[in-house]
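Trying the structure run again after the queue cleared.
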Amino acid sequence: MDTLLSGQLLFAALVSGSLYALIALGLNLVYGTLRLLNIAHGDLVMIGAYTAFWLFTLLSIPPVISIFLAAAICGLLGWAVYEGMFRRLLSNPGLARRVEANSLILFYGISVMLQNLAALAFTSSSRGYQYLDTVITWQGISMTGNRLLSLGVAAAICFGMLLFLRFHLFGWELRAVIQRREAAQIVGVNLRKVQPITIIAGFAIAGIAGVLVSMTEQITPFMGFPFTIIAFVVIIIGGLGNIGAGILAGFCLGLIETYGVALTAPGYRSILIYGLFVAVLLIRPEGIFTKAVRS
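Done. Tokens:
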């Protein structure tokens, strides 16, 4: 019982939850505005992780700087995917419905390409580096600097996005497209402006998450799939397209996972995550926080 009430466990849960919320944020933005299920989302996390690794290893550039380059690389990839594959198709209402229905297959192809290109370029060997790994003790809670940095950056981006959606004019347009796309077009929202910016932002956020993950996890070409699954679990719990609820769901999943493993065993981690996922789909498929939280 003392372990469950310790600040150590709470800190671990917040770190995990903030990363889950950040990873799911990018996926939720893309789905909410373009209605595309990006199953390659975790592979963008992998690209961000490799960016941080090579910059730190070859040029001694710290992750706090490589965050910006990783965001730029993944954002550029998002622009290329939109312009090369989706812009013309989504501008045609008939084709758009077909693309939305088959987007999972399209992104699966992109995922396979990214994984194999990374394996060819970097081999399948696990890689990692040490950065801010000194243990800091405060009020009986032991933590490393890289986990503190990860928590701070992830939480800042998540809550910054909520503020942006609430108070910025473009944030209002984005929310309108997420909630009622056809109605948003009627009142003058320009989808040709909102959609590319959103997919660039969603991809860039995944790249940033990859940099944060790289500070504490092993990096491989195939590391992305578990993060894709986590992101889908989070947005299903929060409600597809509901940005604020998705962020809250990410933190809740981190708490459930951390405390659930503490009560059981590490081997039950996947059972807890998938069990929660199935339970939500059966009991409340629209999402637990859909009415409680609005972005």
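The radius of gyration is 19 Å. Worth checking whether this holds up in the mutant runs.
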